[in-house]
Every structure is written in C-alpha cells, then in structure tokens.
Amino acid sequence: MQLALSAFSGLLGGSAAAVPVVGGAGALAVPTFLAGAPASGLAAAAGIPASLTSLFAPVGSAASVLSGTTTVLSAMRNVAAGEDKAAEVETKALDDRAQGAQRRRQMSREAIDLIGGNDVAAAAAGIDLGYGQAADARSRVLDDVLMESQIDRQQEDARTMNYRRMSRRARSSGRLQGFLGLAEGGLGLAERYG
C-alpha cells in the first residue's frame, strides 16, 4: 500500500509524507498536497496550477449573464403569449360581430319575404293592403323583426364586453407572469451574489 501511494505521489510530482495509521503498525505514505493545508484545494488535488484556476473565474460571471438573459427571454415569452391570447380573443369578437350582422340581415330578408307573401295572398283575395288585416299583419312582422334584431344586438354587445374582459385578462396575466419571472430571476441573482 505504501508503495502504491508513493508511486501515486511520484506521478503527481509531489513528495510523500508519512501519516500514522490508527490501530496499526507503521505509517502510510500520503502525498503532501493531500496531507498539507486545505488552501491548496481541489485545484491542487487535481493537479491544476493556480494560474489556470484564475482563467475559469469568468465562467461564473458568464453563467450569471446567461441566467439573466434566460430570465429576460422567459419574461418576454410570457408577455408575448399573453398578447397572442388577447389577439385571439379579439379576433373571436370581430368574428362574432360579423356573424351578428349577417344574422340581422337574414332576419330582414325573411321579414321582407314574409311581408311580400302576405301582401300577395291578401291582394289575391281582394283585400286592400292599406288598412285592415293586411296592414296589421305587416306591422306585426316588422315589430317582431325589430324586436328580434334588438335582442340579438344586445346579446352580441354582452358577448363583446365579455371578449374585451377576456382580452384584458390575457394581457394582464402575461405581463404579471413576465414580471414575476423577472423578480424571481433577480432574487436568484441577489442570493447568489449577496
């Protein structure tokens, strides 16, 4: 065993020191860089000269810069995701508006067709279209179409308000997540260098 340690010490270029073995006879030869003061550290234990360890000092600061950059990019990604979700919701609101306008146009066409059919039937029966049953039927159809259009428009306005609220929430959520990510990254850096 002593020979192996001496050979190991010779390979590393150090000298062997005798360390007494507890409960045994004799002493083991241990390389002086292992038996010496701990100031030599891992660099000495690994056989790395002190001048080389100073070259690796910038690696820590580069890692910190990389960590900070990753934190900022993550925050930007969260904000962008919130903006994308808000844009998606706003597109749905525009689609709903277009569909609402199309529904109301369809209601108007159906009302015109119904009024025209009633007028043709009344004229074929010899009923005067200016007053009486024909005029009342026309008035009822127009009132019904106007009422349905107003109800549809009110429902559409309520949905539009809901879409706006969802859009604001998506933006706020993205910004909040981005801010929290930045704060967490900043606290991590502060703990590392504090």
Walk me through this protein's architecture:
- With 194 residues, the protein is mainly alpha-helical.
- The protein folds into 2 domains: 2-48, no CATH class; 68-193.
- The chain has helices at 2-12, 32-35, 41-45, 50-53, 57-124, 133-193, and strands at 16-20, 27-31.
- A hairpin with a 6-residue loop joins strand 1 and strand 2.
Fraction of residues in helices? over 70%
Shape: rod-shaped
- Alpha-carbon distance between the two ends: 46 Å
Strand content range: 5-15%
Number of strands: 2
Uncertain spans: 1-25, 27-46
Rg, alpha carbons: 43 Å
* Cross-sheet strand order for the largest sheet: 1-2
Topology of helices and strands:
Elements: H1 2-12, E1 16-20, E2 27-31, H2 32-35, H3 41-45, H4 50-53, H5 57-124, H6 133-193
Antiparallel strand pairs: 1-2
Key traits:
194 residues, 2 domains, mainly alpha
Short characterization:
By secondary structure, the chain is mainly α.
